[in-house]
Design goal:
Blueprint: H1 2-33, H2 48-58, E1 62-67, H3 71-80, H4 84-94, E2 96-101, E3 103-105, E4 108-113, H5 119-128, H6 132-141, E5 157-161, E6 168-171, H7 180-194, H8 203-210
Parallel strand pairs: 1-2
Antiparallel strand pairs: 1-5, 3-4, 5-6
Length: 222
């Protein structure tokens, strides 16, 4: 009788760790299956530390707008960045939007002033401000004419960068007035995919992307 009781106790002790391990494994799988909750984010960031924190936590690239005080930049800030299908649909689900505003150099109209930028924002301009394709064109004609981050010709610029800010993923092409906001947004989405990422696209946005020229400016000819 006593032997049977002892055997039952020993069996229970042996099975207990196994049952515990099975439960832990099940809990681990459940944790893996549960999607990580994303941090809430502002529509547009102006401080890099804040943008980077959210981008890394959400594993989303930063779409960096580097604008200066000219008409094309004002158009981008007032029209494109606030274009509802971009800001409220695409950006909210896929990216962190950041804006750096640059002022013209008071002594040289061909330059932008970097003196007023804080250290973090200055580093972004130094790392991603130069349009490398354009710089190579200049260098091909004259090796001493390689572009610098302070050269105004680089801007406005719209660049995808990695969540940690370590590298450029894609530089958006210059805004095409003839294509309008639809083509611009299509280029942004294409840039996201060129970076090897598949965006979340709502049915409403998908419909717009099927015919981006629908929002192109109409000819005013009578």
């Amino acid at each position: 009788m006593y032997k049977k009781i002892i055997l039952l106790i020993l069996g229970a002790l042996i099975l207990a760790p196994m049952t515990s391990n099975v439960c832990l494994a099940a809990d681990d799988k459940a944790a893996e299956a549960k999607p990580k909750k994303k941090l809430p984010k502002k529509p547009i960031y102006k401080k890099y530390k804040e943008a980077k924190k959210v981008a890394e936590a959400n594993n989303e690239p930063i779409l960096l707008f580097m604008l200066k005080d000219d008409e094309p930049s004002k158009f981008i800030e007032q029209k494109l960045m606030k274009f509802a299908p971009f800001l409220k649909d695409f950006a909210q689900k896929n990216i962190v939007v950041m804006l750096i505003k640059l002022k013209s150099d008071s002594k040289n109209n061909n330059k932008v002033s970097l003196k007023t930028l804080k250290e973090d924002e200055l580093k972004l301009i130094e790392n991603f401000g130069v349009n490398e394709a354009l710089s190579k064109q200049f260098a091909a004609k004259d090796k001493d004419k390689k572009l610098n981050p302070s050269d105004a010709i680089n801007y406005p610029a719209v660049v995808f960068i990695a969540p940690d800010g370590a590298r450029e993923l894609f530089r958006c092409p210059k805004y095409d007035v003839r294509g309008g906001v639809g083509v611009w947004l299509s280029n942004v989405v294409d840039g996201f995919r060129t970076a090897g990422l598949e965006p979340v696209i709502s049915p409403k946005l998908e419909k717009l992307l099927e015919d981006p020229m629908k929002l192109a400016p109409k000819d005013k000819k009578k």
